[in-house]
Amino acid sequence: MKTQCKNQLRIAIVGAEEKKWKSEEQKTKAKNVIKTLLVKHAFTETISDLDISNTSMEPDYSTIVLITGACPKGGVDEWSIVIAKELGVDRIVYPPEIFQWNNERCCVCMGKGNIPGEGGTLYPCPSCKGKGYLRGYRERNMLIAENCDILYDIEPRKSCRYCNGTGWNNDLMKPCSKCEGDGAYSGGTWTYKYARKLGKEVHKVVI
Ligand SMILES: [Zn+2]
Ligand SMILES: [Zn+2]
Fold it and tell me: Is 3.40.50 the CATH classification of the domain at 9-98+136-206?
């Protein structure tokens, strides 16, 4: 992939897995949002080069790159990859290496990150790629937030399991702190809040 040193705008798209989307209409809307924002950024990043006398201006997809987490349960991650491929947008993918929230010590290298070969030479562990642990969802989400310029969290409405989608915490008598009152929450929203804490430009789209 030709992503190095090209000064591309790094656009992270995160959001809910497939089963949280309730209807085909809602899924179609989400896919349209993903496509629209990629197209939009492919124009705006070249705005200084725009030739306004040229009415056949095309978006330049080489100016942007998609940052995604490749959720194994489909949904926003999968749709983003498919749409980026269709448009010819470069992709940087941070998949989880183990399907749980926290990292786990690698049992192949016993957490050392390398394994001895013949003659005692040490080789990077192929299972954890030399890290000594397998990356869970939490670190995957942090990598996405740290490695993007702008992040979009795309969520189906009433999906927050902490407030049953009401946006309100009845026990504390104040807005739900997980979804921040809009009733929509997934691991993508966790990433959105983490990126915001890092000072990144973030947008949440509730559909
Ligand atoms: Zn290992
Ligand atoms: Zn909530």
Answer: yes
Q: What is the pLDDT of residues 30-70, one digit of tens each?
A: 999 999 999 999 986 455 555 666 666 778 899 899 999 98
Per-domain residue ranges of the chain: 9-98+136-206, 102-135
Find all residues with CB under 8 Å of 181, minimum gap 6, and list them: 167, 168, 175
Predicted TM-score of the model (pTM): 0.89
DSSP 16-52: --GGG---HHHHHHHHHHHHHHHHHHHHHTTGGG--T
Select from 143, 197, 122, 158 the least CA-distant residue to 22: 158
The conformational region for residue 69 under phi > 0 = left, psi -120 to 50 = alpha, else beta, is alpha
Q: Are 61 and 87 in contact (CB under 8 A)?
A: yes
| CB under 5 Å of ion ligand 2: residues | 160, 162-163, 176, 178-179
Say how many Å lie between the CA of residue 90 and the centre of ligand 1.
Answer: 29
Q: How many CB atoms lie within 10 A of CB 174?
A: 10
For ligand 2, the distance from its centroid to the CA atom of residue 135, given in whole angstroms, is 27
Give residue-wise pLDDT tens across range 82-99. 999 999 999 999 999 999
